[in-house]
């Protein structure tokens, strides 16, 4: 009996993780772990809130909710003795948090917003670093015990201009470096795979010796359709929930770390 593959498609924001994971799952027939996106969780936990207006407590809640959903989905497949392909991993939310403690909790917000948050967070940031260090112990242990292979997607594309990426290019570079180094330290077999979407799928299938039941081209086309439909639904939900904050609400947002 072959050892089950628990594959992570790794990378930071806008590296093509979701498209690659979805297409690879369709091409191979291996179940996909697709935990709720941060945008989907946002509409559930904090309807009407924008990423750039969130405080650290809210950001932690998003990360913990996504961690819970991912663990639940992965453990279900593991219990059934299944292979799986995961869109990102438990390390993503942890590293996204640690990078925010380095460059600011709202890297996609206007500069004056970032300056105010930096000043407000001078004391709280020390606690956050300790908290995330403890959180890191848990997720690193889980990753080492659970994942068998990592495919890391480097930054090759510009950040999606959809207006919903709550980060900066500096944030992307730092988180990409930290994600890569974290897997390297864990010693999980890792391959860096770049190129076009079809090149990526073909390379991954070859590297990991995966079965193929759908052509790479058809798998990518189907993946794009599914992702576009999902994003349209979430975008509409965000639009429906959003209301322009009043002056008092803006002051309240700026005064919370």
UniProtKB/TrEMBL annotation:
InterPro entries according to UniProt: NadR/Ttd14_AAA_dom, P-loop_NTPase
SUPFAM superfamilies per UniProt: P-loop containing nucleoside triphosphate hydrolases
Top-rank taxon, per record: Bacteria
Residue span(s) of domain NadR/Ttd14 AAA: 7-196
Pfam families, per the entry: AAA_28
Name of the protein described by the UniProt record: AAA family ATPase
Lineage, broadest ranks: Bacteria, Bacillati, Bacillota, Bacilli, Lactobacillales
